[in-house]
Amino acid sequence: MTSNKGSSATDATLRRRIEPWEFEVSFDPRELRKEAYLLYEITWGPKCNIWRHSSKNNNNHVEMNFIEKFTSERYFCQSTRCSITWFLSWSPCWECCKAIREFLSQHQNVTLLIYVSRLFQHMDPQNRQGLRDLVNSGVTIQIMTDPEYCYCWRNFVNYSPEQSAHWPRYPPVWMRLYALELLCITLWLPTCLKISRRHQKQLTFFTLTLQNCHYQRIPLHILLATGLI
Ligand SMILES: [Zn+2]
Known about the structure:
Blueprint: H1 20-26, E1 37-44, E2 49-56, H2 62-73, E3 82-88, H3 94-106, E4 110-116, H4 125-136, E5 140-143, H5 146-156, H6 172-186, E6 193-198, E7 203-208, H7 212-217, H8 220-225
Parallel strand pairs: 3-4, 4-5
Antiparallel strand pairs: 1-2, 1-3, 6-7
Helix pairs in contact: 3-4
The protein binds zinc ion.
C-alpha cells in the first residue's frame, strides 16, 4: 500500500473524506456503534487509477449500497482488471455476504479485499457461514491493524496538517481477539470470543473462552499473542 502525503487544499479527494472524530468513533474496535461505515478504494486499468470514497449505512447496509452504486455508475469491460479494497467498521452480515458473492460472480474481473474493525454478530451461525462462504469464494477478509488505521487516516480522513501522524492507536489486544475469532470462523471452530454489554453503564466486556479444540487447531503463538492466556 502507498499512502498519500496528507490532506491539503489541493487534494481532489478532500470533499469525500470523513472527519477525524467520525473515523475515530466508527472504527474503534472497542465500541459497538450501530452505524456501519465503509471506506473504499477501487483500483483499475494499466495506470492503476484509484477512486476513493466513503459511505454510511442508511436504510440499506453499506455493502448493498456499494454494489448498487458500482453496478449502476461504473462500467469496466471484462478485460479490465479491477481490485476493490473495503475498510468496514463492521464485518458483512450473511445477507450482504450473499450479495457480495453474487456481485463477484457477475464481475469476474473484480477482486475484493476486506478489512474490518469489528465482527458483526459473530456468534450468529448464519453470519459465520456467510463469512466462510466469502472466504471460500476468494475474498480476503482481515481484521484492521495499525498499518490499516494509518492508511485510512492518511487517505480517507480530513485531518489537519499537524495531525498527519495522529491516527488512532487502539490497544492491539482487541484486534488480536477479533483476529482470533475470525480464525475460529474460517476453521469451523466454536466461538471463543464473547462480547457482552451492560446497558446501565454502557460498558462492553470481551471474554475469551478457549476449549480443547481451540488449543489443538490454533497455533500457540496466535493464542499467546492475545496476551490473555
Ligand atoms: Zn449486511
